[in-house]
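Subject: design request, 488 residues
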């Protein structure tokens, strides 16, 4: 049976009651208060084995109280709760020395599990926190559950140098996340260097990354520094890593393994101290099967995977994003705008194949082209130009050509395969086509079944006609995200 005294502070009596009951059932002694002053008195008197506190207290902000607590009792774990649910809330909780940040509402079982982990951890573990800039012009916007998971993951990663692999569709904000990892992390004093692999000619990638010596190749009239050297002491962001040619992948793997590199045409190894953050909108596992990406490099880069959700999976964030972009364009000199209810509904129903980037571009168009202070649904309809809305397509599909009216699934697959084979002209696709095609079909099918049953795997297995254990294995193998709902 677990044991320990929990000091709980929240000015909401109902929340205190619920948390008190849940923690007491788990075997903990709980002392609760509605203000920060009482919490501080208990802590300063040496009471409590763990603190749970809301950020917004009637007499003091918890973020101001946390440094004082950590100063007199550095080993006391603190769990911070907040209904603000922004990126900066998670980051500030981490910076002030919180053991964990939980956005409200949260699952009580999760809270009890976090408490158990916090009380069982070794003492005198340094937080590694570094004060971040006080700039409230936050880089990431959204309060959806999907974004809360991203914020919490980022807060844990800030004090580390772990390699991160960011995946997500185009326009989901992969570079923004990489930049946030740098700007609020331990390497913020160093440079942030971004390189887009898809934008560099294949023959120049090694020179771009590692630099070259004078005379290394035709046209090399002087020594040139590479991106690794430019990023020394900071962060190197490798965007579109799936487009890196195999020969460059081999050199990158060697750098990651040995911590040193040589310039093109050079002979003296150069030590490197950079944090690597990679990103891609491709499925690297498919590229591995096709022989286009090294499996050992994938595991080197995929130390901490972060999947950014497409905008259609976080439509509840659209109002916050719209307001954020309108504020930005207003700062740039355009008039203040807002959307009416109908216009916002249109945006929530749109598929957003270009994700957040497409939404930002739309907001900028609306602000620049229309004199009205309030943008109507008719205006949004005209700008979206009759693009498909969410109810008209199965969720989770990207902006691919729609099925023809009389075309069945078999005909559509056949048309797609004909186009696929024709792209290779006189050659053939890479081996393993059968399993790649089945995987591509399985993923959307299982994803659609899970979405239709609101993440209930028992009902999804029944709908698909497969064993529940088989479904679980497929979800794991295909790396599908299961979003559960109590309404299922």
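Subject: RE: design request

Done. Sequence follows.
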């Amino acid at each position: 049976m677990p044991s320990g005294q929990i000091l709980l502070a929240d000015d909401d009596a109902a929340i205190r009651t619920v948390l008190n009951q849940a923690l007491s059932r788990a075997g903990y002694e709980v002392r609760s208060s509605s203000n920060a002053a009482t919490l501080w008195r208990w802590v300063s008197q040496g009471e409590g084995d763990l603190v749970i506190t809301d950020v917004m207290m009637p007499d003091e902000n918890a973020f101001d109280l946390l440094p004082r607590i950590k100063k007199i009792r550095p080993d006391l774990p603190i769990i911070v709760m907040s209904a603000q649910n922004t990126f900066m809330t998670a980051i500030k909780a981490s910076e002030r020395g919180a053991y964990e940040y939980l956005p409200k509402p949260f699952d009580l079982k999760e809270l009890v599990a976090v408490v158990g982990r916090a009380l069982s951890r070794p003492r005198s573990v340094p937080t590694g926190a570094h004060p971040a800039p006080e700039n409230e012009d936050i880089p990431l916007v959204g309060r959806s559950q999907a974004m809360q998971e991203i914020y919490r993951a980022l807060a844990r990663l800030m004090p580390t140098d772990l390699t991160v692999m960011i995946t997500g569709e185009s326009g989901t904000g992969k570079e923004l996340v990489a930049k946030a990892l740098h700007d609020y992390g331990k390497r913020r004093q160093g440079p942030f260097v971004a390189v887009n692999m898809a934008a560099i000619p294949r023959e120049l990638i090694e020179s771009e990354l590692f630099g070259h010596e004078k005379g290394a190749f035709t046209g090399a009239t002087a020594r040139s520094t590479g991106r690794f050297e430019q990023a020394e002491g900071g962060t190197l962001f490798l965007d579109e890593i799936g487009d890196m040619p195999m020969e460059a992948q081999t050199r990158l793997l060697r750098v990651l393994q040995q911590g040193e590199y040589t310039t093109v045409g050079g002979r003296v190894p150069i030590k490197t101290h950079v944090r690597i953050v990679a990103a891609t909108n491709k499925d690297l596992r498919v590229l591995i099967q096709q022989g286009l990406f090294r499996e050992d490099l994938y595991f080197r880069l995929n130390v901490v995977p972060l999947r950014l959700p497409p905008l259609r999976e976080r439509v509840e964030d659209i109002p916050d994003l719209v307001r954020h972009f309108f504020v930005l364009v207003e700062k740039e000199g355009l008039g203040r705008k807002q959307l009416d209810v109908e216009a916002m509904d249109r945006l929530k129903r749109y598929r957003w194949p270009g994700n957040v980037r497409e939404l930002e571009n739309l907001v900028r168009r609306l602000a620049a082209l229309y004199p009205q202070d309030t943008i109507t649904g008719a205006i949004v309809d005209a700008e979206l130009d009759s693009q498909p809305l969410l109810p008209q397509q199965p969720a989770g599909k990207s902006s691919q050509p729609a099925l023809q009216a009389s075309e069945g699934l078999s005909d559509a697959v056949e048309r797609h395969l004909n186009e696929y084979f024709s792209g290779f002209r006189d050659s053939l696709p890479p081996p393993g086509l059968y399993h790649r095609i089945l995987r591509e079909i399985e993923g959307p099918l299982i994803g659609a079944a899970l979405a239709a049953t609101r993440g209930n795997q028992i009902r999804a297995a029944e709908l698909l006609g497969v064993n529940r254990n088989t479904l679980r294995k497929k979800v794991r193998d295909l790396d599908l995200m299961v979003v559960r709902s109590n309404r299922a």
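Confidence is low (pLDDT under 50) at residues 124-136, 386-406.
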